[in-house]
Amino acid sequence: MEIKFVTEGMACSKCEARVREKLSAMAGVSSVSANAADGSVVVTGEGLDRDALAQAIEDLGFDVIE
User: Fold this and answer.
1) 11-40: average pLDDT
2) Within 10 A of 38 (CB to CB), how many other CB atoms are there?
3) What is the three-state SS of 6-63?
């Protein structure tokens, strides 16, 4: 299963690392890709909860716009 998000607010590689670290620790997540240049976040895994993942991104201070 793959879930894609478009976010606003990621500005650098440290932002990407924070997103990867937080989401990687969540249940069912096998990999996370975050790209500050275009604001994309791609999460792969099994039994993923889109709402919980989006909330985790927002808890870090970034806006999920899609």
Assistant:
1) 97
2) 8
3) EEECCCCHHHHHHHHHHHHCCCCEEEEEEECCCCEEEEEECCCCHHHHHHHHHHCCCE
Q: Give Cα 63 to chain centroid, integer Å.
A: 10
Q: Which amino acid is at 39?
A: G
Element (H, E) at 3: strand 2-8
CATH number at residue 26: 3.30.70.100
Domain count for the chain:
1
* pLDDT for position 49: 96
Q: How far apart are CA 48 and CA 61, in angstroms?
A: 21
Taking only Cα atoms into account, the Rg of the chain, rounded to an integer number of angstroms, comes to 10
Tally of CB atoms within 10 A around 51: 8
pTM higher than the cut 0.85? yes
